[in-house]
């Protein structure tokens, strides 16, 4: 069942992807550009953004630190002003930070950095773009979460709670924005080969390339899904585990992860 308007044509659409210097964000921006969208990419890495624009003629970039609310608001205003139609058809929040952490090595500064980039940055983007989208009465918001947000996992003490927050946020947004004609989706990937996961010292089952992840995401938008999770052979198992009572879940996940 489609919970959002299906996006089947990208030609002429303006899409702002935040967190697009590497990995899933960059691969998704590249795929949407190939499908005819006018893509604006944002991240802190100016060199990476410039190289994207060179490789994808017609795209634009806005260098951006998502922790800076004023900078996010100003970037959104520039994008709207420069749009030929004055519209913003899609906003994708893909900015992310990840470092494995256990309670025994808790680092408050690192935990707060996760919160600022993974969650508070999304709030800054919402503050800058929701007025435009609601005035349009159309458009789509997409937040990139993670299967790590489904339930507690070993080594995910800093990362997992921020992704759980994004999942809850997306549900709240959907309930408010769907009646206004605005689509909302949350993307929960499994393991994807990116700079964020490169430091993992454990086996990552069903590992995907960023290009494979991008194809799954665009397919999910095409189908009008609210939650886009992949690869299904991995994420469906995690969804089943999600429903176990704590007395079963904790031993099961400890055994599976040897955690």
Reconstruct the topology from this structure.
Elements: E1 14-18, H1 23-34, E2 38-43, H2 46-55, E3 60-63, H3 69-82, E4 90-93, H4 108-136, E5 140-144, H5 159-177, E6 183-189, H6 210-223, E7 227-230, H7 232-242, H8 246-257
Parallel strand pairs: 1-2, 1-4, 2-3, 4-5, 5-6, 6-7
Helix pairs in contact: 1-6, 3-4, 4-5
Keyword list:
Rossmann fold, 14% strand, 7 strands, globular, alpha/beta, 8 helices, 259 residues, seven-stranded parallel β-sheet
What does it look like?
The chain is of the alpha/beta class and 259 residues long. It has eight helices and seven strands; from the N terminus they run βαβαβαβαβαβαβαα. It has helices at residues 23-34, 46-55, 69-82, 108-136, 159-177, 210-223, 232-242, 246-257; strands at residues 14-18, 38-43, 60-63, 90-93, 140-144, 183-189, 227-230. Strands 3-2-1-4-5-6-7 form a seven-stranded parallel β-sheet, sandwiched between helices.
Helix content: 40-55%
CATH topology: Rossmann fold
Total beta-strand segments: 7
Count of separate DSSP helical elements: 8
N/C terminus separation: 37 Å
Ranges where pLDDT stays below 50 over 5 or more residues in a row are none
Strand content range = 5-15%
- Outline type: globular
What is the CATH class name? Alpha Beta
Average pLDDT taken over every residue = 92
Strand order of the largest sheet: 3-2-1-4-5-6-7
Radius of gyration: 18 Å
Q: Spell the H/E element sequence.
A: EHEHEHEHEHEHEHH
CATH superfamily: NAD(P)-binding Rossmann-like Domain
By secondary-structure content and strand pairing, the structural class works out as: alpha/beta
Domains (count): 1
From the coordinates shown, what is the CATH architecture? 3-Layer(aba) Sandwich
Major sheet summary line: 7 strands, parallel
């Amino acid at each position: 069942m489609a919970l959002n308007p299906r996006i089947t044509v990208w030609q002429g659409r303006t899409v702002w992807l935040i967190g697009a210097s590497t990995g899933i964000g960059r691969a998704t921006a590249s795929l949407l550009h190939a499908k005819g969208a006018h893509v604006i990419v944002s991240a802190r890495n100016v060199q990476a953004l410039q190289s994207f624009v060179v490789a994808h003629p017609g795209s634009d970039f806005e260098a951006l630190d998502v922790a800076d609310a004023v900078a996010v608001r100003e970037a959104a205003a520039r994008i709207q002003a420069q749009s030929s139609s004055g519209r913003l058809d899609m906003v994708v929040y893909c900015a992310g930070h990840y470092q494995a952490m256990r309670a025994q090595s808790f680092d408050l500064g690192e935990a707060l950095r996760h919160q600022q980039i993974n969650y508070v940055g999304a709030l800054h983007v919402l503050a800058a773009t929701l007025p435009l989208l609601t005035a349009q009465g159309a458009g789509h918001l997409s937040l990139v979460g993670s299967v790590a947000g489904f339930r507690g996992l070993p080594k995910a003490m800093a990362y997992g709670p921020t992704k759980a927050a994004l999942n809850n946020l997306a549900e709240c947004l959907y309930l408010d924005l769907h009646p206004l004609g605005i689509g909302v989706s949350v993307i929960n990937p499994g393991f994807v080969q990116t700079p964020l996961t490169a430091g993992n010292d454990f086996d990552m089952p069903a590992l995907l390339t960023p290009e494979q992840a991008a194809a799954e995401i665009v397919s999910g938008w095409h189908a009008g899904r609210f939650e886009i999770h992949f690869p299904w052979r991995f994420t469906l198992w995690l969804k089943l585990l999600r429903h176990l009572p704590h007395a079963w879940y904790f031993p099961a996940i400890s055994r599976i992860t040897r955690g």
